[in-house]
């Protein structure tokens, strides 16, 4: 399997705090069946001012430590990129890294507030020749009121990445519901761990693959964790990738049922 979203680089963001934790995460990933991991620290203006040069240097250093420790995990680079007015310019200049230098990159929406003109921003990135892979929409607090946006962006050419643990309930019932719904509706391109630590957020991908297989079958589950991630790292054009499964969209639950399930408004 290939994990394209992992905060394993030590001391660079809110992920692994030190080398010991990073090595433990790498051992866990290999034991889980992951053989390639993209190191994707946050790029968040004003908080995590990472750039491609610094990330690549940190990846090379950690890869050397993995070799010395005999851990057979191959690393590549990327970033968990937040929306910014100069994002297209940052990618074009090489300051903001894509996944392995390809046309694909991770785009993390704000967690608690729906960004204005998010759909327009995504289409502008697509028009510039890049493919935003929208990370963990199932965990956003505003997904209920803006769910249709994600279907529109997918149909427009954007990609969706779910967190593997969302499908197994690691983040609670609410993200599990939305993860399963998006999967059932054929909106999900890849799964990734979004791992941040060895204890609370370990790099476990197989459990998500297995949970997905129960809903969409073994072939599509393999596409989620291997075929499409391989295609991303090979910079394959999106239209030549395995297509998303065509599934009818289920009716939205009634307000009363939603309240009974999750206690929400």
Summarize the helix and strand pattern as letters. EHEEHEEHEHEHEHHEHHH
Give the end-to-end Cα distance, rounded to a whole number of Å: 39 Å
Strand order within the widest beta sheet: 3-5-6-7-8-9
What coarse outline follows from CA principal-axis ratios? globular
CATH class: Alpha Beta
The CATH architecture can be given as Alpha-Beta Barrel
Contiguous runs where pLDDT drops below 50 for at least 5 residues: 254-260
Please give the domain count: 1
Please indicate the percent range of residues in DSSP E strands (runs of 2 or more).
5-15%
How many distinct helices? 10
Average pLDDT, to the nearest integer? Answer: 93
What does this protein look like?
This protein has 265 residues and is α/β, with parallel strands linked by helices. It has one domain: Alpha-Beta Barrel (TIM Barrel). Helix content is 43%, strand content 14%. The protein has 10 helices and 9 strands. The protein has helices at residues 19-32, 52-69, 87-93, 118-127, 143-156, 164-167, 173-184, 206-216, 218-233, 255-262; strands at residues 2-6, 36-39, 42-43, 74-77, 80-82, 104-108, 131-135, 159-163, 190-192. α4 (118-127) links the parallel β6 (104-108) and β7. The longest helix is centred in the N-terminal third of the chain and has 18 residues, at 52-69. The radius of gyration is 18 Å and the shape is globular. The chain starts with a strand and ends with a helix. The relative contact order is 0.14.
């Amino acid at each position: 399997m290939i994990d394209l979203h992992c905060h394993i680089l030590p001391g660079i963001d809110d992920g692994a705090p030190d080398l010991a934790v990073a090595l433990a995460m790498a051992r866990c990933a290999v034991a889980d069946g992951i053989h390639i991991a993209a190191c994707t620290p946050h790029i968040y203006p004003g908080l995590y001012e990472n750039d491609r040069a610094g990330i690549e240097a940190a990846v090379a250093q950690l890869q050397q430590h993995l070799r010395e420790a005999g851990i057979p995990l191959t690393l590549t680079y990327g970033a968990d990129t937040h929306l910014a007015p100069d994002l297209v310019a940052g990618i074009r200049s090489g300051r903001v890294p894509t996944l392995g230098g390809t046309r694909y990159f991770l785009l993390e929406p704000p967690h608690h507030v729906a960004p204005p003109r998010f759909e327009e921003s995504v289409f502008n990135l697509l028009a510039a020749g890049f493919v935003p892979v929208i990370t963990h929409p199932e965990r956003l607090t505003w997904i209920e009121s803006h769910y249709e946006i994600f279907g529109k962006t997918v149909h427009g050419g954007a990609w969706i990445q779910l967190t593997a643990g969302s499908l197994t309930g690691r983040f609670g019932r609410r993200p599990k519901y939305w993860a399963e719904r998006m999967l059932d509706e054929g909106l999900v391109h890849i799964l990734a761990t979004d791992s941040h630590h060895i204890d609370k957020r370990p790099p476990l991908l197989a459990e998500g693959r297995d949970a997905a297989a129960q809903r969409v079958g073994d072939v599509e589950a393999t596409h989620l964790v291997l075929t499409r991630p391989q295609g991303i790292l090979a910079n394959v054009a999106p239209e030549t990738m395995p297509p998303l499964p065509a599934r009818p969209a289920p009716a939205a639950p009634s307000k009363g049922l939603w309240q009974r399930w999750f206690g929400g408004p």
